Amino acid sequence: MTGIIVTTRESESRTLELEPEATLMQLICDAGVDELLALCGGVCSCGTCHVYVDAEFLPLLPPVEEDEDLILQESPARQPNSRLSCQIRLTEALQGLRVTIAPEG
Length: 105
Ligand code: FES
Description:
- Helices cover 14% and strands 18% of the residues.
- It is α+β, with helices and mostly antiparallel strands.
- Strand 1 and strand 2 form a beta hairpin.
- It is globular, with a radius of gyration of 12 Å.
């Protein structure tokens, strides 16, 4: 499977072409998925780029850093597979990555 599969809060799935070196947040926003607000522009301070990552891809991602963890701790929607999409830089190894946009809050 190539591309990044993004499922919205309305359960609509879109496959986006992977752009190496972009962040997952940039890819989703550039595709016009406007429910991912990304209010801070990717500096890990707002939490509005929260996504759930399909479990099989979690080991391929860099670990959650302290800043990201602090932001996620403030979200009542946090799950074990929660990540901030602005902290995920895309690489070819992530072809087929599946994520779901987390609820607001
Ligand atoms: S865009 Fe603000 S924390 Fe990711």
